[in-house]
Structure prediction request, 98 residues.
Amino acid sequence: MNCPNCAKTKVRSKEEFNKLMCRLNRIEGQIHGIKNMLEKNAYCTDILIQTSAVTAALNSFSKELLANHMKTCVAENIKSGNDEIIDEFLSTLQKLMR
Prediction:
């Protein structure tokens, strides 16, 4: 599937794609669970704990994607002589660390 709003695209291996999608599906389920908790008037602390779990899951997803990006996109660009990828990567890291 092409991303019409993305400047660049990447073809991922089936294994990488499935692993990332599995994580996102799990996160989506957690979000749905939080919505249900809110609809059922769950106690604030219980919802906050679940929200924290989603945040941790998203951070884990980001770490996995970042590692894959370094091992493939960044490494391949450097090997082919495109050192501009380093500035792009540093810019991405700065955005992630806000």
